[in-house]
Design brief:
It is a single chain. It is built from 8 helices and 18 strands. 26% of the residues lie in helices and 22% in strands. The chain is globular. The longest helix is centred in the C-terminal third of the chain and has 27 residues, at 332-358. It binds flavin mononucleotide. The site of flavin mononucleotide (FMN) has 21 residues, from helix 8.
């Protein structure tokens, strides 16, 4: 199976399965002399870690990341960085009864049709446990970004979960780190929690929308045709498990706007161009404008639910599937740090690419 790698210059290859001894990422192309250690990477893995509160799966994985190569005396050496996370809380017996059954909404059936041999324990390679490796790689990207673009900030948060919608008039980015939902509105947290707990008790699950923004991104990263910044961001977000839609800026809603509504008018400010709005999501013609990058993605409801669903066995006979095990009632909660990690990897990749494309030389303006 090829296709385990993403990125042009900052290249991330993930490896491992959910119930194997370990999984991780091999990162090639990280610049040398970037200060980084395991504790720095761990803070991002801790955001994604299961079992932290009642609004996520109760699986207990410490998700402790180890750096096996590419870092010497606290700095990257420019060689490939090997990151490893051991799997410690696998309960394969939870999955024994699905060895010959295809769980609805999971990759069991397609994986079987394509490869004919699948590790059914927790979905194997198609398990979202793989996203822990991306988060580790994203931590490394953030360490490099701290060096190359020190003002750059990446923030992910939930904007919708089933019937719950973020009230944008109350958007407060400072609230994100202080609640279980990464919700930028502290006043809505209780209502979201009650809603999700009711869904869980009803043996059901729910989808969500996550927005990831990058602030203080330099203008001029990206390229106009086959290495568009928006192409790579969309592909990165779409590659996350359970993602069914990706939008940049105004996204799908742009189709109902007029040209006058959608125009991000340009003015000359003291420190360069300024825009009246950001319907474009910080990207024009595949190249960053210097405004916030704004990406949104929708995750489907968790497929593993305790309510019986119809499916088939490997031999084609019908079966009613109840998916036991410990699952996220809404995968959106734990997808937030994954989206942030993908944003970090793509932005760093394009900052590195830009040096090759332009040598960092910019046309004067004003
Ligand atoms: C962070 C994260 C956690 C997830 N946890 C679960 C889970 O506990 N149970 C489940 O059924 N799906 C979970 N998923 C989604 C499945 O991995 C995904 O739906 C499945 O692999 C099929 O892939 P697809 O939905 O992309 O087609 C999770 C996804 C993410 C991003």
């Amino acid at each position: 199976m090829s296709m385990n790698t993403f990125g042009h210059l900052f290249r991330v290859t993930t490896w491992g399965e959910s119930h194997g001894p370990a999984l991780g990422a091999t990162v090639d192309g990280c610049p040398p002399n970037v200060p980084v250690d395991e504790a720095f990477l761990q803070q991002f893995l801790d955001k994604r870690r299961p079992g932290q509160n009642k609004n996520m799966t109760q699986r207990q994985e410490p998700d402790a990341v180890r750096i096996l190569s590419g870092v010497f005396e606290g700095k990257t050496t420019g060689t490939s960085v090997q990151l490893m996370i051991e799997n410690t809380d696998q309960r394969s017996k939870d999955y024994g009864d699905i060895a010959n059954t295809f769980r609805p909404g999971h990759a069991d059936i397609t994986y079987h049709q394509k490869y004919g041999n699948r590790d059914y324990r927790g979905g194997g390679r198609s398990s979202a446990r793989e996203t822990a490796a991306r988060v580790a790689a994203g931590g490394l990207a953030r360490a490099a970004l701290n060096h190359l673009a020190p003002d750059l900030k990446i923030k992910g948060y939930m904007t919708a979960m089933g019937a719950m919608q973020l009230d944008r008039s109350k958007l407060d980015l400072n609230a994100i780190d202080h609640n279980d939902f990464w919700l930028p509105d502290a006043t809505a947290v209780q209502e979201w929690e009650d809603y999700l707990q009711k869904i869980r008790k009803d043996h059901n699950s729910v989808g969500a929308t996550i927005e990831v923004i990058a602030q203080n991104v330099p203008a001029g990263i990206g390229a106009p045709v086959y290495a568009k910044l928006d192409t790579d961001l969309a592909a990165a977000m779409m590659s996350i498990n359970a993602v069914k839609g990706v939008e940049i800026g105004e996204g799908m809603a742009a189709s109902s706007l007029t040209g006058t509504d959608n125009a991000d008018e340009i003015f000359m400010g003291e420190n360069g161009p300024e825009y009246s709005s950001n319907h474009a999501g910080g990207i024009l013609g595949g190249i960053s404008t210097g405004q916030d990058l704004v990406v949104r993605f929708a995750v489907k409801p968790t497929s593993s639910i305790l309510t019986p669903r119809q499916s088939i066995r490997k031999d084609g006979t019908a079966i009613e599937v109840v998916t036991k095990g410990r699952h996220d009632p809404c995968v959106g909660v734990r997808a937030v740090p994954v989206g942030e990690a993908m944003m970090a990897c793509v932005v760093l990749d394009h900052i590195l690419l830009d040096r090759g494309q332009t040598g960092g030389i910019r046309a004067p303006l004003g």
